[in-house]
Amino acid sequence: MISLVTAAIAPAIALLCFFYLKDEYEQEPVHMVFKCFIFGALLVFPTLFIQYALQEEQVIQSLLMEALVQSAFIEEFLKWFIVMLTVYSHIHFNQRYDGIVYATAVALGFASAENVLYLLSYGLETAFLRALFPLSSHALFGVVMGYYLGKAKFYDKKVRYLFYSFFFPFLLHGLYNIILLTQDRWIYFLTPFMIFLWLLGLRKIKKANLNQAAYFSKKAAS
Length: 222
Known about the structure:
The chain is mainly α. Helices cover 83% and strands 0% of the residues.
């Protein structure tokens, strides 16, 4: 049991440390990041309840609805909502990159709890693929979400960027699900999609850090 939980959570902790340490200027308090991780993990339970209710009421009538509504929309909206509720207005959310740290922490908390439940059902032999695809994808959806939340907080056009912070993770998650549900040889399609996600995520990280560098340079010169 302990080995199973460790196998489910350890990759998420490693990814969270990676994104946390990518902050080149002012890293966030560990207790705030941990709180977001826990909130993300707890989101699994209302998510499962809503998804079960949709199935019971036969609201989901197609694979497309399952991919976009039952999974992508519900999961990304709840993650977005909990970030907005708990940290968006917090004093520690004071730089562009902070959005990436907090949104990724929520996403990886969610993915970890989901991973524990999955490995309990299907065994340790699925741990590697779970870490490679679902866990990593949740983290990268979180990076995209957090990037736009950072822009929404510190730039004009807040409504636009808040919309982007939900819409783009939802769109990417939906595409991920569509590949998984509609392709028999899904790994041949999902592998290049994951490479694209990583490149996109790393680009957002670089841009967030560059914006922070410009801010600190301007602050030092004033």
